[in-house]
Amino acid sequence: MLIGVPLETSRGETRVAVTPETAKKLVGQGHRLQVETGAGVAASATDAAYTAAGCEITDKAGAFGAELVLKVRSPDANELALMKPGTFLVGMLNPFDAAGLAAIAAAGVTAFALEAAPRTTRAQSMDVLSSQANIAGYKAVIVAADRYQRFFPMLMTAAGTVKAARVVVLGVGVAGLQAIATAKRLGAVIEASDVRPSVKEQVESLGAKFIDVPYETAEEKEAAEGVGGYARPMPPSWLERQKVEVAKRVAQADVVISTALIPGRAAPVLITEEMVRSMKPGSVIVDLAAGKGADGVGGNCPLTEADRTVVKHGVTLVGETNLPALVAADASALYARNVLDFLKLVLPKDGAFTVPMDDDIVAACLVAQSGEVRRK
Ligand code: NAD
């Protein structure tokens, strides 16, 4: 099959959907790859490396003109115009972006959004949310350490003792767990909060303290169990008690990493302006939910500004919305392996693309076919 790998053009996007490593495997399976000039350069993959892997280097029209196009982000209108009806597309296409999916469907493209894969054991090797969130959690701490004007570890020096940084992690999914692990390696003292009770043990196993907010009603307990491993919106009664506990920790924190999300909904507000005011000057908040707040601008903190770093009330708020793109080479390497694993379900060796709807992963990821959006 003719496979196209375009250069990503979304602002700040440095990742690429196929690396020379995965390209070599696809070529070995009998496919022909057309990689756009410079597609991997920002992720440390040169055109020469793709050529050595057996790919042809082409222009934008060549990459989008393939039978199967492998992308990181959704194609824009100009890119869609280069795709023939009947083209197959695999990428992180944002299954909650109704307008974006409608445009893809209108172009007659058969599209698969990898973020929609179920969080099951079989889907783990193609779980792009996990592979990228893991990187985001790591980089969030590195960015925070860079912005923070003090040490993370406790240090005893001849010039005196330096206290360890206090880090609070809000939302302990894949990104939050990696943030805890990374902050721990740097020597911080960490406390973490999540709505899901199963998280407590994981937090403690990483050497952090769980901020306990007991469930007082059956409704609270049921909501906290979530659905499919994901959180559901918690009743206001629980959120109020969580706010009191979180506010105490945030006031003492040097660094807050917030990652709390509920799929398909606005990010919950966990750090109010009042809490930001209570923080010490020089403290840092890295808000991974930036741009996902109710207004589409704020995140877990309403003062966060998407894709900007701002100082408010003496606190530095980092609103970087694409932290994995700051670790482009490894983020691409892991994403490209996720893509390769997904292709095993739809693209047999040497064969034509198939859409086996009896496969739960394929069925969940299919977002556009025959001019129709397949999910909302
Ligand atoms: P996510 O990015 O959707 O959300 C991040 C975290 O925010 C979650 O832990 C969520 O519980 C938390 N959160 C939501 N509202 C909150 C609030 N008000 N206060 C505090 N925290 C709040 O989550 P994710 O990283 O995508 O992980 C979702 C789930 O999927 C987790 O249970 C994870 O363990 C699971 N998972 C399973 C597999 C698998 O089995 N293959 C793979 C990856 C992840």
UniProtKB/TrEMBL annotation:
Broadest EC class assigned to this enzyme: translocase
Has UniProt tagged this entry with the keyword NAD? yes
GO molecular function terms noted in the UniProt entry: NADP binding; oxidoreductase activity; proton-translocating NAD(P)+ transhydrogenase activity
Keywords for this protein: NAD, NADP, Nucleotide-binding, Oxidoreductase, Translocase
Q: Which terms under GO biological process does the entry name? A: NADPH regeneration
* Enzyme Commission number, as recorded: 7.1.1.1
Among Pfam families, the record links this protein to: AlaDh_PNT_C (PF01262), AlaDh_PNT_N (PF05222)
What Gene3D superfamilies does its record include?
Answer: NAD(P)-binding Rossmann-like Domain
The record's annotation in InterPro entries points to: AlaDH/PNT_CS1, AlaDH/PNT_N, AlaDH/PNT_NAD(H)-bd, NAD(P)-bd_dom_sf
Reaction it catalyzes? NAD(+) + NADPH + H(+)(in) = NADH + NADP(+) + H(+)(out)
This chain's source organism reads: Piscinibacter koreensis
Q: Which parts of the sequence belong to the Alanine dehydrogenase/pyridine nucleotide transhydrogenase NAD(H)-binding domain?
A: 145-319
Q: What is this protein called?
A: NAD(P) transhydrogenase subunit alpha part 1
Question: Alanine dehydrogenase/pyridine nucleotide transhydrogenase N-terminal domain location, by residue?
Answer: 4-136
* Recorded GO CC terms: plasma membrane
Q: Tell me, what does this protein do in biology?
A: The transhydrogenation between NADH and NADP is coupled to respiration and ATP hydrolysis and functions as a proton pump across the membrane.
Q: Family, per the entry?
A: Belongs to the AlaDH/PNT family.
